[in-house]
Protein 1
Amino acid sequence: MSAVILSGLEISNDIRNKLKKKVESMKQNGLHPGLAVILVGNDPASRIYVNNKKKACEEIGIRSFEYVLHEETSEEDLIQLVETLNEDKSVHGILVQLPLPKHINTDNVLLKISPNKDVDAFHPFNVGRIMIGDYCFLPCTPAGIMEIIHRTGIDLQGKECVVVGRSNIVGKPMAMLLLHSNATVTICHSKTENLKDVCRRADVLIVAVGKPKLINAEYVKDGAVVIDVGMNRLENRKLCGDVDFESVLEKASYITPVPGGVGPMTITMLMKNTVMSAELSK
Ligand code: NDP
């Protein structure tokens, strides 16, 4: 039997419609959520991400402030801008688009964003809160994945969940959110031995590696839920996930496509965090 395809686009539209209504009523009460996005340099992929965030703000009614700085901007100038935005009452979320140019220390910059406006949840203070399970802002991609999983109706308690990838923005916080849902969690990475065997244990398999079609049907247990975070641009310019969609489709119970799976959820969760931040600012 073929897996059910989990459309992140549909879930995302549903959440965006709810956010839109919420923002309308907030505006009537004199509170207009605002998101500031800072882009340093001309990286084309970053430019696309920033444009998509701007479009999402427009759609939901969030005020968006865009700062495009030239490639040679100094770390001091960037930090100065962040500090100005920290004080700006019309800004409820601050996002510095990564990666930053090499001469800028990313950790130094992220540390300067006020934890109260850190809608990406990258500040060590918020990372710590995610670890403890007492969070304010949820990290956007893992939060989007949790929304997708909830829609399957699966109760994660006691389930074997395997996360492939241990990055600070996806793999590690993802594992924490699953753990807080009482799943039994395994994190895999490039040094993991017998990856196939470990993945085959998973009731829920989440793949965030950045290698096209790394995971095929042989890595998947019958009836598993498979979430593909990977976004790989192939030579023909097409987007491809880390999961071999066609082969896994026949084995999984649920699967997310690329594009149209996790991707749209990430931006929607960013919008949700911005709206929440505005509410908390009251
Ligand atoms: P990183 O490069 O930061 O991390 C990749 C992880 O994969 C590392 O932990 C690495 O292990 C692990 N890895 C690499 N090769 C293997 C392998 N052969 N077997 C097992 N593990 C391996 O990537 P990100 O987490 O930032 O992103 C991962 C993917 O998700 C990318 O394609 C990215 O574009 C996409 N992405 C998509 C988002 C969305 O919204 N849909 C959001 C963010 C990312 P080690 O630590 O040992 O090096």
Protein 2
Amino acid sequence: MCGIVGYTGPAKAAPILLEGLAKLEYRGYDSAGLAVRDGDAPVQIVKSKGRLRALAEKTDEGRALAGNVGIGHTRWATHGEPSERNAHPHVSGAPEDHDRSADPSDVVGVHNGIIENYAELKEKLRKNGYSFYSETDTEVAIKLVEYYYKKYGIGPIDALAKTMVRVRGSYALAVMFRDYPGEIYVARKDSPMIIGVTEGESFIASDVPAILNRTRSVYYIDNLEMACVRPGSVAFYNLDGEQVEKQLTTITWDAEAAEKGGFEHFMMKEIHEQPKAVRDTLHSVLRETETGKEIDLSSVGLSEEEIRRVSQLHIVACGSAWHVGVAAQYIFEDLAAIPVRVELASEFRYRRLLLDKDALVVIVSQSGETADSLAALREAKRLGIKTLGIVNTVGSSIAREADSVFYTVAGPEIAVATTKAYSAQLMAMYLLAVQFARVREEIDAQAYADYLTELETIPDKIARLLEDKDRLQWFAAKFSNAHDAFFIGRGIDYAISLEGSLKMKEISYLHSEAYAAGELKHGTISLIEEGTLVIGVLTQSALYEKTVSNMVECKARGAYLMGLTGYGNYSVEDAADFTVYVPKTDPHFMASLAVVPLQLLGYYLSVSRGLDVDKPRNLAKSVTVE
Ligand code: AGP
């Protein structure tokens, strides 16, 4: 998620923009830039790759840029590598210098979000004489605004309205027009944006922390609305260009709470960002065609010919990413009839690899910098095996070195315990498995369409789960003094158990193990005693009865049973002491729903123990050493 800041008023704009961007650094970014206007002079644009410090030094802490209106941006790359050329702000013209320029363009702007149909819009603009200097979807959006602004000779609000009607995706745009000095225009759909005011000054920001020390009086711009921001005043418009009235509200959060969007921890904020992360990842490769929806992997770099030729998949990762691989094994084998081996990267990299020449090694990594996973990738490449990365961080080592890359679109993940990135990785795997199945003719067109339709319901089903957290909070408090917990399941339920167990261990320090339910009786069941918590994951109806039997075996030895299953499977209450229900979906996709209560359980256990949820002891967000 990118950071946006804007200012218009009597003061020098650049220092205020840098101050606001610095308050958004916690969100993660890979480049930054400013656009500042001094009266009617051409806009001054300065960008830098890497840390905000570089931008501050280039502009002498902002003092080198004259002008009292401007916009600033920190970029978390989604389209195009981290670079000065791709950094925002972007212009409607064709600048030569991407580091520092005085640009005569009619329109300059910054963006937070994803323009899903940017490729087709880029083509349309090219046909109308536009050329492009960056790989970003944002440049396309800014040029589209100018296209309408010039083609129809209309004002900024009408040009933005036409752009909003044409664009598919999520965006918060902040735009300055050469003909309207002193003003900033905002357009919003799905991505956050607030507008703050004080006497004679106005501020815009993608997140509250950026302007909290300047003003607590803010307007919240709603979806498909626009605003004209002038010094100390704001006018709001709907998509029809009609002015709408807005209530001024006062922010009561302190700065720390504001960074977490009002949640107590980043982890809970990111658990709630899962519907959007999953939806954005799905839509990043889903296309509308005359014959219906299709998965388009052209941006991934995996052709249908290559998909047909794959003889075996090796899914290689660490931690939660490895748990995604364990779930994916069942899904790929079931849907695409392709043999899959899932391996821990730390094992894969050292064993004697006997890989088929047409194998595909899939490296799953949120950070794209995990040392073992990167080493595994390099080992596969050394052996001449094709590699695919499933990565959340654009421009990371694994993303750059893999032959092809499927970017999850979860945005920066701050909490050490992964949640939204894990869920986005699951979605990426579903899409690959369904596409492999279709291309290899293991499923027909109707099944393909049905799977895609079901995948589109997943984000809302996750959101529904997040509306009812109280029971889990109560249950976590009940077990906050427990010493052991066992998660058991079969098939995909075993993969879900692995992730649930890790969430519990890594943030609440409560020892737990995940076991294939059928394996428990081969030794570990000796650990079950009076009051031991056993969580049975029961989302796979074909294996339901067998796992319930394993749960009953544990109950006979004194265990306290929690059941986790789909709505309607009430018979589980005959065995379980406490049951959590999740919405139903295709069995192959149930991990996306069943994992949410287990994330919350780990979270509430950690909170009940007074632990540092976001930064658990001994752990790093990215394990870049062996
Ligand atoms: C999961 O909550 C942990 N943060 C950890 O297991 C993590 O999944 C693992 O270190 C892999 O990280 P990566 O996805 O960045 O490669």
